[in-house]
Design brief:
Layout lengths: L1 H23 L7 E5 L4 H12 L9 E2 L10 E5 L1 H13 L4 E5 L2 H14 L15 H15 L3 E8 L5 E7 L14 E6 L7 H15 L5 H9 L1 E5 L4 H9 L53 H12 L4 E9 L3 E4 L11 H19 L4 E4 H4 L7 H7 L5 E7 L14 H23 L8
Helix pairs in contact: 1-4, 5-6, 6-13, 7-13, 10-13
């Protein structure tokens, strides 16, 4: 009873502290979330012009989703100062819209409250809490220690602000049956866009399953015995931490392009050196899709590319986790042309889709990124296939389809992890069956 009383007191004191710190963050009071519904080509063109060539009064609108098709839903974060001008523009072109969140700050406060409540437990859990970067690294060190000889941490570089880019390698202690010195490998990353918190949370859940299920799940054991797993939960740790302490909706890195630059940061998923700056970007450094001054200007993207290329020839599967949209996408994003291995990748994507949907009936769409999302260039996905020559490459856009968007409640972390892990696990198992005749790793 005394312990519970102490927990309640600590909660109340901590909650007061959190409310105080929230006020020091960027304030989204009065910011609204619009859902815009273009009905024809002309209306779609208006929204695309607003995205890529906006008038001065509507610069840097926060596009939560892209205007890609008539009948599609476009979500926009709108400041109080921009609301009237946006409504005038939409009304002028008779573009239907509705306001689905009247005050984004209220949603952020509710999130902070829910996230705080989970911290009443003795140990922070990856199942129901959005951990900040330092908390996640502490958890990663603990589970690596628990995993013992099957797990190891590797720092593959540093971020612009000096944070370690730490990945975990999960492998089997079994010796291979051939003289080959390297197993085939699987790469999973997340957190390249800072505000997509469900992506790192899901990657941490994957790690949890690979470690804790090895001795109790024969399928997990087969996958760990057959492949080396490399999981990088935070490609963009600076941006992720900034989204925790300052601006919850921050997307980019935190690099300074010039000493006296007004705006900072680069869209790391437009910064890879494959068809860089060919489509789906803005040259404005203040834009959230700014691709950087040169390819691999960001130490984070350069470190990822260097690490993958240093192990070239071993990779079987590349998965990058994002949110939101419930999409499972193959290359390419920069063109509507399909890659040579498209049919094989789609076969596995459909396996993953069914596996995900069989858990909670969460519906996913599958296809190439340019077909089911939008055109984009300089992405890690296209680079992984086009340069690193990894045969199976996917972007997974996690929950949801816009109801919460980037602000997915913490109580959906576990269900997102469970269903997505089922998809990725069965995708990898099917890949193993298809490629096993070509592999010496037959235990």
């Amino acid at each position: 009873m005394q312990r519970r009383h102490l927990q309640i007191v600590c909660f109340l004191l901590t909650n007061c502290f959190i409310r105080q710190t929230i006020t020091t963050k960027d304030d989204f009071t009065g910011h609204q979330l619009f859902r815009v519904l273009p009905q024809n080509r002309e209306q779609l063109d208006v929204l695309q012009k607003l995205r890529y060539h906006p008038p001065e009064k509507l610069e840097n609108l926060d596009f939560w989703s892209e205007p890609t098709e008539t009948g599609g839903k476009v979500y926009l974060g709108v400041s109080p100062e921009q609301r009237k001008d946006l409504e005038t523009l939409l009304s002028k072109h008779r573009i239907p819209f509705e306001i689905i969140a009247n005050n984004i700050q209220r949603v952020l406060d509710e999130h902070a409250q829910r996230n705080l409540e989970t911290r009443l437990n003795d140990e922070i859990s990856v199942y129901d809490t959005y951990l900040d970067f330092d908390e996640a690294m502490s958890w990663l060190r603990r589970i690596t220690f628990q995993c013992s000889s099957r797990c190891s941490l590797h720092n593959i570089g540093k971020s612009f602000e000096g944070r370690n880019l730490t990945l975990i390698k999960v492998q089997s202690t079994k010796e291979p049956s051939t003289g080959t010195d390297r197993k085939p490998s699987i790469w999973i990353d997340s957190g390249i866009h800072a505000r997509e918190w469900i992506a790192p949370a899901t990657a941490l859940y994957f790690i949890d399953r690979l470690v804790l299920d090895y001795d109790v799940d024969s399928e997990v054991q087969d996958l760990v015995d057959g492949y080396d797993w490399y999981i990088l939960p935070f490609v963009n740790p600076d941006g992720y931490q900034y989204s925790h302490v300052k601006n919850r909706l921050w997307r980019k890195t935190r690099s300074k392009i010039a000493p006296h630059a007004v705006c900072v940061g680069v869209d790391a998923n437009r910064n890879f050196d494959f068809h860089w700056k060919s489509v789906g970007y803005q040259d404005d450094p203040c834009s959230d899709i700014y691709p950087g001054p040169i390819p691999f200007s960001e130490p984070e993207t350069k470190a990822v590319a260097d690490f993958i290329l240093s192990r070239n020839g071993t990779w079987s599967l590349f998965v990058t986790l994002h949110s939101y949209g419930q999409l499972l996408m193959t290359p390419f994003g920069y063109t509507s042309e399909k890659p040579e291995g498209y049919d094989k990748m789609m076969k596995l994507a459909k396996v993953a889709k069914l596996s995900i949907e069989n858990v909670y009936r969460t519906e996913y769409a599958v296809g190439s990124a340019s077909d089911i999302l939008y055109r984009s260039s300089g992405t890690s996905r296209d680079w992984a296939y086009g340069v690193a020559k990894i045969p199976y490459v996917y972007t997974i856009e996690l929950r949801d389809q816009g109801e919460h968007g980037f602000l997915l409640p913490p109580n959906q972390i576990l269900s997102s992890g469970i269903e997505t892990w089922e998809g990725v696990k069965n995708l990898a198992l099917t890949m193993d069956q298809l490629e096993r005749p070509k592999s010496p790793w037959n235990f």
